[in-house]
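User: quick one, fold this
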Amino acid sequence: MQYRNEQKFILSNHTAELLRRRISAVMKPDNHSDGIYVVNNLYLDDQYDTFYQEKQIGAFSRDKYRVRYYNSDLSFIRFENKHKDGNLSYKKTLAMSKEELDCLRLGDFDFAAVSEQPLWQKVSAIHRARRLRVSAVFSYTREAYVYEAGDVRITFDSAIYPEQLTPQPCANAPLALNPVMEVKYTGFMPSVISAMLHGMPLVRTELSKYCYIRERGFRH
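Assistant:
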């Protein structure tokens, strides 16, 4: 499994706009919805809130289990297990059906128990031991750029909407959230990208949007 470096920064609106201009001159927009799209999330946690608590205490090694789809389009749904060791991370993903998503929402993990997919088997084992359930549902707006060398991906996340499952995610008022920039790369950071970020007032953060939602009392 190949690890990727991952760093997060909280930005002012002014800094975010300056960086967007710099980055868009060098990097290409992600090919998904011309680089700007809504990320729909459904997070799982166990009866002890293990994954939430691991993040809160800053555990070096931790996991998260979530469902993602985009622009409220349920024709393509992914289940993800993201593992982090410090600033290094990797993801295991698999496609899932709307019917499987409906089962997860209802707390029904029977389909995972009979699956031959190793990831579903792992989920089923955790469920049997610690009773998994949906712990948060939310969406946010993402603007993404990519750079081939170093497999660099820079994203700007904003406008986070709790418990938002309607076809038009922007219909409800978002929670206040400063722009969050994520920088991810494999192996090395190209100098042209480092030069764009150099000298900017970047504030490193370990912000988790999942924890951000949970801390404000939103729970599925």
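User: anything notable?
Assistant: Confidence is low (pLDDT under 50) at residues 164-171.
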